């Protein structure tokens, strides 16, 4: 199967940016900027902007995602949001295991797995983030680490559910730093991720799974990164907050 048989997905990760009012303005700018896309376009917004995002993107080619989800269905978990709550709003995607959640909010491979499974069970599409720190890259354990993160995140996930799983390779040292992985580095790790998916689910599932790169992807470097055979899209932080930049990345993925 060729890369063209996989769906390229460009997803914006807004992080803790934009009030709902500001989100509405940005979406007004994004709609025309990505209208001609020949790839899947997703915006993952803070919980407080999801209602606005779902409403405003109705009838457009923009899909809406959340940035996190809790693994329990309901109960005494003050401050948390369940997968059913997201589905009920019309949210389609969710990110799990972002490195900022791992770093600042004590997220572990096990809780990433629990969140991923809960989200899939509720019918969401899940963008599972994996990636090594600078120290781990320098220690030469990138592939082992990313393999392990991927394997644990996917424990108990069925081959059928894999059609709703996207893996985002996000080297921690490249996130928000302006320091992008080279296209070859991105390709190398995306291949390693596809290999582990193949070991777990077989070649057909591995070839059909979207593997994104994320970490300082922008309007300038998107072409080169997305030109790589196993880089099937991007998870975009900073550049997703500017409509012309996000539009340019979407255009690069649509070639
Ligand atoms: P960045 O963030 O594009 O700002 O580096 C990417 C991400 O954290 O998903």
Structure overview:
With 255 residues, this protein is of the alpha/beta class. The protein has a single domain (3-244), classed as TIM Barrel, CATH 3.20.20. 42% of the residues lie in helices and 15% in strands. The chain has helices spanning 20-34, 50-57, 83-89, 99-104, 109-121, 134-138, 142-153, 183-201, 203-208, 222-226, 243-253; strands at residues 9-13, 40-45, 62-66, 93-96, 125-130, 165-169, 211-214, 233-236. The protein is globular, with a radius of gyration of 17 Å. 2-phosphoglycolic acid is lined by residues 13, 170, 175-176, 214-217, 235-239.
In brief:
The chain is built from eleven helices and eight strands. The chain is α/β, with parallel strands linked by helices. It has a single domain, classed as Aldolase class I (TIM Barrel, Alpha-Beta Barrel).
Overall number of domains = 1
Question: What is the CATH class?
Answer: Alpha Beta
Number of helices, counting only DSSP H or I runs of 4 residues or more: 11
The CATH homologous superfamily is called Aldolase class I
Uncertain runs are none
The CATH architecture: Alpha-Beta Barrel
Counted beta strands: 8
Mean pLDDT: 96
Proportion of helical residues: 40-55%
């Amino acid at each position: 199967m060729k890369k063209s048989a996989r769906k390229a997905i460009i997803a914006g990760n807004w992080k803790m940016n934009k009030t709902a009012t500001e989100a509405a303005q940005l979406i007004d700018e994004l709609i025309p900027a990505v209208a001609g896309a020949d790839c899947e376009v997703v915006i993952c917004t803070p919980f407080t902007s999801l209602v606005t995002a779902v409403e405003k993107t109705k009838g457009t080619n923009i899909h809406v995602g959340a940035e996190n989800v809790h693994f329990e269905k309901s109960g005494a978990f003050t401050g948390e949001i369940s997968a059913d709550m997201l589905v009920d709003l019309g949210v389609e995607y969710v990110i799990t295991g972002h490195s900022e959640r791992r770093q600042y909010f004590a997220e572990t491979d096990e809780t990433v797995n629990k969140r991923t499974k809960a989200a899939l069970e509720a019918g969401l599409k899940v963008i599972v983030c994996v990636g090594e720190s600078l120290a781990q890259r320098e220690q030469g354990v990138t592939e082992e680490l990313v393999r392990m993160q991927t394997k644990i995140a996917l424990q108990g996930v069925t081959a059928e559910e894999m059609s709703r799983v996207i893996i985002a390779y996000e080297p921690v040292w490249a996130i928000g730093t302006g320091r992008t992985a080279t296209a070859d580095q991105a390709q190398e790790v995306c291949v390693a991720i596809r290999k582990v998916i193949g070991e777990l689910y077989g070649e057909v599932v591995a070839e059909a799974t979207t593997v994104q790169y994320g970490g300082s992807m922008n309007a300038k470097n998107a072409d080169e990164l997305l030109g790589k055979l196993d880089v099937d899209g991007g998870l975009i932080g900073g550049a997703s907050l500017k409509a012309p930049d996000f539009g340019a990345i979407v255009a690069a993925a649509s070639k």
